[in-house]
Amino acid sequence: MSERVKNLSSEILSDAWYTLYKYTFEYKTNDGQWQTQTREAYDRGNGATILLYNAETSEILLTKQFRLPTYLNKNKSGLLIESCAGLLDGDPPEVCIKKEIKEELGYEISEVKKIFECYMSPGAVTEIIHFFVGSYRPDMRVNEGGGSDSEQEDIEVLTLDFDQAYAMIATGEIKDAKTILLLQYAKIHGLV
């Protein structure tokens, strides 16, 4: 535990979908003073995401699905274009992302490469996301994808030209941070 935090206590505010906690603690500021602070943090577990690409065709696979928070914040349709992703649910990140690829995109991939991990919204969410890239070929397709009925997923699989997808960042058609990071990684490293 940090030497700058003491007397940490928590209270569950909601445990409906994921868990929302209210924390009270004392924090030692840069000038050595102790402040009592209260913060809320949403705990949904950690996740993994991947950009699947085909270097021969310059295509990538993304998903499109309804996201209520975007609908509530001025996205009229609520549909968001994203990289394939999911929660770890106790699995190692590599195992998780391979399951998500099969479930959401319909491909079975044997090799993925972890490129980094990061917090996406550290002011309010505890989640850290593990980022991967991997190549695919059409013969790796094992089903139609589309997500899990038990998780109420209704996912459209998108096959896009990489340059077209990258341009969609500037047009605002792609607004998902994890997807933008993966597209930029692919561009910088010349994957496609």
Radius of gyration: 19 Å
Distance between the termini: 43 Å
Order of helices and strands: EEEEEHEEHEEEHH
CATH superfamily of the largest domain: Nucleoside Triphosphate Pyrophosphohydrolase
Fraction of residues in H or I helices: 10-25%
Beta-strand share of residues? 35-45%
Secondary-structure-derived class: alpha+beta
The CATH architecture of the largest domain comes to Alpha-Beta Complex
Number of domains: 2
For this structure, the CATH topology of the largest domain is Nucleoside Triphosphate Pyrophosphohydrolase
In one word, what is the shape? elongated
The number of helices is 4
Quaternary state, please? single chain
Number of strands: 10
Would you identify the regions where 5 or more consecutive residues have pLDDT less than 50? none
Task: Please report the first level of CATH classification, the CATH class of the largest domain.
Answer: Alpha Beta
